[in-house]
């Protein structure tokens, strides 16, 4: 299927590792002009080297998106570098795994500022740029914990639920500007953020998944590419689970054989 993404300008927060890194490569291979941001200078250098190996163009910007000035800077510098912004993927996220009564105030703000505040204002800043060129697409990375929250991840689950609800409101409020807003709910995906949990709780985790495996970042790529394209022009304000039929039934491993 031809997605028609060539020459689209795509900005991805948290684009230097995990899902964000694979998305950056996938959009670049579709002919998009890609910009990523991340906090870690070494990861940014690695991204540049990887893109150079494939002969792909990359605009990389060092930023902590929980700082709104740096987040705005990333979006505005991307727009200035490529002369427009067509697609924004608010992908950066973080978590702290512990009982909710044990969270410190610093941990609370770190999770909320990264997962929710940055998504909210990313949509604000991104929409402002998209209005200048007649529309665009915003994709917010949510989580399956928005559908069914996880004990030990109260803040992560809560912020991702907020992402989905605000996505629906933003979609309605921006529809007149020809800006679509959707979210993707990845299931348990093996990334640097989750690899320890995936390793230590593997059997427990796959017991809930009909496809009997954990996701990889590459499993997420198709959903984002399609939702960003004009093939999805009438899909707006929704949250798409990409979770291998996780918890869609009570007994996912039942078999007649």
Summary keywords:
Rossmann fold, 7-stranded parallel beta sheet, alpha/beta, 257 residues, single chain
Notes on the structure:
- This protein is α/β, with parallel strands linked by helices and 257 residues long.
- The chain has one domain (9-189, 216-242): Rossmann fold (3-Layer(aba) Sandwich).
- It has 8 helices and 7 strands.
- Helix 5 (154-174) links the parallel strand 5 and strand 6.
- Helix 1 (18-29) packs across helix 8 (217-228).
- The chain is globular, with a radius of gyration of 18 Å.
- The model has no long low-confidence stretch (mean pLDDT 94).
Succession of helices and strands:
EHEHEHEHEHEHHHE
Give the strand order of the largest sheet, numbering strands 1, 2, ... along the chain: 3-2-1-4-5-6-7
CATH superfamily: NAD(P)-binding Rossmann-like Domain
The total of beta strands comes to: 7
CATH architecture: 3-Layer(aba) Sandwich
Would you summarize the structure shown here?
The chain is an alpha/beta fold.
Question: What's the layout of helices and strands?
Answer:
Blueprint: E1 9-13, H1 18-29, E2 33-38, H2 41-54, E3 58-62, H3 68-82, E4 87-90, H4 105-130, E5 136-141, H5 154-174, E6 179-186, H6 195-200, H7 202-206, H8 217-228, E7 239-242
